[in-house]
Design goal:
DMSO/NO3_reduct_chaperone; globular; TorD/DmsD_chaperones; TorD-like_sf; 62% helix; TorD-like; chaperone
Length: 233
């Protein structure tokens, strides 16, 4: 045995669900991965935002996030001009690059007593990667928001809904809701507020679906924000 969990055959329903959810999660990861471009903004405006997602999630928080994001897109010039793109780029940098919002997109900073990177949480995510034979050449820490979302999508694509639920409980849902709430409260543009709220709402709704479909009840939640008031200190 090589210690790696290999994909097992899943039912067509599980496969279809997993693929749709994985595509959604990867789309969310893409919204956090880079500053918005003209092409991305036009893609988002090309159809109703809810149609961009494979799963239909009828929840007020997701509807409000989509409405906020839609309003943000409507207020931008079409196509977005240099001034609008610069404003979005500055907000992206404040969230992901300069720590201006004190909302670091890395799990270790949120879930440990010291707001530092590369702590136990990172090594636990690495262990998940090894367990499922996932290799990435991305230079960011594996407990970065974007990489955690891509790994979650990998599990979903394999039809491993129970494992995806466990990973959500042990990693993203420990800190992403607090991260998204802080970003929404402190960012300057409604575009990133909507993106943050949509991400947090989607992951929470996805966990409920996994609980129903894969016999993985949700554990008692931990409030990462109450334990870590000053992220990325």
């Amino acid at each position: 045995m090589d210690g790696i969990i290999h994909m097992t055959e899943a039912s067509p329903v599980v496969v279809a669900f997993g693929r749709a959810a994985a595509a959604d999660v990867r789309r969310l990861a893409g919204l956090h991965d880079h500053e918005p471009t003209t092409d991305l903004l036009e893609e988002l405006r090309a159809q109703p935002l809810q149609d961009l997602f494979g799963l239909t999630l009828d929840r007020p928080d997701i509807a409000q996030a989509l409405a906020l994001l839609g309003e943000a897109l409507d207020t931008l010039p079409r196509p977005a001009d240099a001034a609008a793109l610069d404003e979005l780029a500055a907000d992206f940098a404040a969230i992901h690059l300069t720590n201006a919002l004190r909302a670091c997109p890395i799990e270790s900073v949120w879930v440990h007593e010291e707001p530092l990177r590369r702590q136990e949480a990172m090594f636990r995510v690495k262990a998940w990667h090894r367990r499922f034979g996932v290799v990435t050449d991305d230079p960011r820490d594996p407990d970065h928001l974007v990489l955690e979302l891509h790994f979650l999508a990998e599990l979903l694509e394999r039809g491993l809904g129970a494992e995806a639920a466990d990973f959500l409980d042990q990693h993203p849902l420990r800190w992403v809701p607090a991260f998204c709430g802080r970003v929404a409260a402190r960012c300057r543009t409604p575009y990133f507020a909507g993106t943050a709220l949509l991400t947090g709402g989607y992951l929470d709704a996805l966990r409920d679906l996994l609980a129903q479909g894969f016999d993985r009840p949700r554990p008692a939640r931990q409030d990462a924000e109450s334990r870590r008031k000053e992220a990325c200190g």
